[in-house]
Amino acid sequence: MRSVMLVLAAAVCFGTTGTAQALGPAADPVSVGAARILIGGGALAAVAFALQAAGRRSGATGTSVAPSSGGRAPRLPAWVAVAVGAAGVLAYQPAFFAGTAANGVAVGTVVALGSAPVLTGLLDWALRRRFPGGTWVLATALATVGVAVLASASGTGPSSVDPLGVAASVGAGASYAVYTLAGKSLLDRGWSSPASMGAMFGVAAAVSLPVLLSTDTRWLATGAGLAMALWLGLVTTTAAYLLFGAGLKHLAPATVSTLTLAEPLTATLLGVLLLQERLPASAVLGLAVLASGIVLLAASSGRRMPRRTTPRTAAATSRGVPVDVGGTP
């Protein structure tokens, strides 16, 4: 349950993104996205480096810890996982913005957020040979329906849907799945969660610098613009992905992906409380359905507690014999 709460806390941080942008100055979304990754990814890399240095001074390693539960040891080099994860981070935002530009915020958001848990579960099943489980399927279906109802309630979708825009939104969902699974791969190797997130986002930050410099950055010279960039970077990226990585260490990627659907729930509630937005009855219904799916999955994941170690399991473990202790997948 602690891991579940960490992921939900990360989703709350993610959910403040829209409100922060609404309260900030008007700016090119590509510029804002690049600044977010540059600041947040750079800070994540700095945190990972500081923890590694502290670990070395204390005689421990700041990068490697005990391998995370529920995964086979990856065979590909670690740098491949870092590069693939960084590519997923970089690809997400332009794909998401392209989808919303083509089909509107409602359709683009529901396709991107709704496809991410499904694609994560399917890729995890294909790569790690672990079916997420019937409860995950039901919870993901409920949460996705809730997101769809919530998005349609905004009434901002166009009358016709652009297939290329849908493809871009699905690409955003796939990008999320890629960097989630890449992060899990690093955790399965024994990397610490700050090190895995810091490596992927640090590389992404380095690539984001020329992207940012190629855009109009005058918004960063204003107080409101700088405050927005720092919030998006340090809260919705650095803090959020430290929490995300810590939860991902002990949960299946598919479970984590569905739990982060608390992001649109948070965003909607903040819109009502801070931006004085009004919710139609259909939006309230969408929130209820979305919350039911998240609660179902959180309760199910929280009940999967490891059994106490018995003399038999302790002896088997000491001999190097793998023993199923009923932990979280």
From TrEMBL:
Annotated stretches, region: Disordered: 306-329
Similarity comment text for this entry: Belongs to the EamA transporter family.
Residues making up the signal peptide according to the UniProt record: 1-22
Domain EamA: 3-150, 165-297
Protein name as it appears in the record: EamA family transporter
Pfam families named in the record: EamA (PF00892)
Keywords from the named record: Membrane, Signal, Transmembrane, Transmembrane helix
Matching PANTHER family: ACYL-MALONYL CONDENSING ENZYME-RELATED, MOBA-LIKE NTP TRANSFERASE DOMAIN-CONTAINING PROTEIN
